[in-house]
Amino acid sequence: MKVFKFGGASLESVERIQQVAAIVQSFPEQQLLIVISAMGKTTNELEKVAQNFFLRKREIAAQLLHNIEQQHLEVADKLLGTRDNPLFAQLQQFFTEAEWTLGEKPSRSFDYYYDQLVSLGELLSTAIVSAYFNLAGVNNVWMDVRDVFRTDDTFRDANIDWTVTSQNVQEKVLPLFKKHNIVITQGFIGSTDQNESVTLGREGSDYSAAVFANMLNAESQTIWKDVEGLKNADPKLFPNTINIPEITYSEVIEMAYYGAQVIHPKTIKPLQNKQIPLYVKSFLNKDLPGTVIREESDIKQLPPIIVLKKNQVLLTITSRNFDFITEDRISDIYERFHKLKIKINLMQNAAISFSCCIDNNPEKIEQLMKELHNDFKISYNEGLELLTVRYNQDGLLEELSKDRTVLLEQRSLITIQRLLK
């Protein structure tokens, strides 16, 4: 069995959905569990619905939801050619449930309503793709992942109950493969034991696929993207990037930690636990080799890995009474960051000060400054960039930092980081 994951970019047009069908058709007689994200920018549009609903701007929220409905109906019309297909009743049911939510008065947290509304995107996309596949001769069965993935009620970042979910996979998913070679389901979402929809946080669809791969003991997982594989740098920021044919689980986790838009570490862990290889391939050209991620790699030396995080802030936290910043003070500072869910991207401490680089989130920074105000003086610089280079080559770091002021630097045997102004 293989697990495939197709993201929103692979579904953003009728032509691309047809292309996805062609990819799946090239694996005849293969058992495939296919995890699908919301189409195109649907998640962003549903976020606007949730925001306006929570602000009690119901007419705006309803209009935005109507626009999403029309977009999906248009795609379904073009793919199926008739509204006699049961798909359209299924889509209507999904939108009716969303309209019921918009008819409520917000009485719970924003995160709760966010999950009830945003989860609609994956339900719509999978229903449409499943119906089109069956019409095109790619026989499959559609499955609601909320019947399988049991989670806690940490809305927008839910944690999977592995025991219950594993049992559900055995009882509800494996039997489907006795009648069908292809099962299509949603990424990113799950359900609490109260049948409330949840989302799984950043890169949730990749993670969903990895959970299935683990529990199904899959041969492999493939993430189909609009790039030929993993690159040594973001091609939108750096010219002449290099494709990486093989890389280890641990190296990908390091890249993600430093801010590379690659595979999220939580996706890697379920695969690493069972030594399941992860392939990153192009849906634009399925014949390209792509990248394979596994425990060990035959490549002895990787090219320089370059990561650039923009819109960074340097915070300098100084003791008001000139006490040393010792372990207990650092622990106290860490606790404030943890409480506000602020990730530290780079840090350095001196005798009476602690400096750190974080993403620029004005709301969280304001809360943090209020938390620390009584005990510390705080200064900060905005508009900075954090440059990380692994496996540096002679002259590369200097070239990338040319004509920039280095505010902070850290080095190890493999990695160099510079905070640049």
Structure commentary:
The chain has 421 residues and is of the alpha/beta class. Helices cover 38% and strands 23% of the residues. The protein contains 13 helices and 16 strands. It has an 8-stranded mixed sheet, with helices on both faces. Strands 12-13-11-14-16-15 form a 6-stranded antiparallel sheet, with no helix packed on it. The longest helix is centred in the N-terminal third of the chain and has 23 residues, at 58-80. It is globular. The relative contact order is 0.10.
Q: Helix fraction?
A: 25-40%
Strand content: 15-25%
Major beta sheet summary: 8 strands, mixed
The arrangement of helices and strands along the chain is: EHEHHHHHEHEEEHEEHHEEEHEEHEHEE
By secondary-structure content and strand pairing, the structural class works out as alpha/beta
| Number of distinct beta strands | 16
Shape: globular
